């Protein structure tokens, strides 16, 4: 709008609350509408970053174009061995069964509607892993060593439930603005070295830049 625009601050409220009082009231533009037909299927899958807790919820998500469904990283839990040196992947905790049920329900509801589902495992799986294994969020040597075992456990579960590695990703961090990128790098490198076929995702917020 250039010099013709003017915004008047509103007394007593935040900086962003302003009233437009400029002279220019209209913005002229030309719109050409071409004869195109949009596909009902989105070019990119939508996501609520949530699983469908019921078939009704699945139907709502499907109607909005969602085909990428969340699985809770906190649900992947295993006991540690007696000496604490490893995760005992033969002893999943009950929460793993909840994740299995959500994946299998998603497959059943997707099949009935001709959908190919994909899965997002979040949020911030590394810190979820640390919390469930009794580690502080300090990227200690033992945590970084067991992190790939956690990812291999996730892979084993997802594959056993019918999900190939190409159809899920694990969000390693969710906006790690207070972690430090060297720690992020160590975590990702450790995970990829120990579980190379698992797709890792980083969600980086503007505060980290």
Give a description of the structure.
There is one protein chain. The chain is α/β, with parallel strands linked by helices. 33% of the residues lie in helices and 19% in strands. The protein has helices at 55-63, 95-113, 125-132, 141-160, 181-194, and strands spanning 7-9, 18-20, 46-47, 66-72, 78-80, 87-92, 118-122, 168-174, 200-203. The strands form three sheets. The chain has a five-stranded parallel sheet. α4 (141-160) packs across α5 (181-194). The longest helix has 20 residues, at 141-160. The chain is extended.
- Rg for CA atoms: 23 Å
State the distance separating the first and last CA atoms. Answer: 30 Å
Main sheet strand line-up: 3-4-7-8-9
Spans of 5+ residues with little confidence (pLDDT < 50)? none
Largest sheet: 5 strands, parallel
Mean pLDDT: 86
Explain briefly what this protein structure is.
The chain has helices at residues 55-63, 95-113, 125-132, 141-160, 181-194, and strands at 7-9, 18-20, 46-47, 66-72, 78-80, 87-92, 118-122, 168-174, 200-203. With 209 residues, the chain is an alpha/beta fold. The strands form three sheets. It has a five-stranded parallel β-sheet with strand order 3-4-7-8-9. A two-stranded antiparallel ribbon has the order 1-2.
């Amino acid at each position: 709008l250039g010099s013709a625009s003017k915004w008047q601050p509103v007394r007593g409220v935040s900086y962003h609350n302003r009233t437009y009082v400029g002279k220019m009231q209209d913005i002229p533009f030309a719109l050409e509408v071409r004869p195109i037909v949009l596909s009902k299927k989105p070019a990119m899958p939508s996501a609520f970053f949530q699983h469908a807790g019921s078939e009704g919820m699945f139907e709502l998500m499907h109607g909005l174009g969602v085909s990428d469904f969340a699985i809770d990283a906190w649900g992947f839990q295993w006991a540690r061995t007696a000496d604490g040196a490893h995760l005992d992947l033969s002893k999943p905790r009950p929460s793993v069964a909840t994740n299995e049920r959500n994946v299998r329900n998603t497959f059943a509801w997707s099949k009935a509607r001709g959908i190919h589902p994909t899965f997002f495992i979040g949020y911030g799986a590394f810190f979820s892993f640390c919390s469930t294994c009794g580690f502080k969020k300090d990227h200690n040597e033992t945590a970084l060593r067991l992190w790939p075992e956690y990812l291999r456990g996730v892979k084993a579960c997802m594959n056993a439930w019918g999900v190939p590695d190409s159809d899920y990703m694990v969000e390693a961090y969710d906006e790690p603005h207070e972690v430090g990128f060297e720690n992020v790098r160590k975590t990702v490198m450790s995970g990829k070295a120990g579980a190379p076929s698992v797709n890792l995702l980083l969600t980086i917020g503007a505060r980290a830049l």
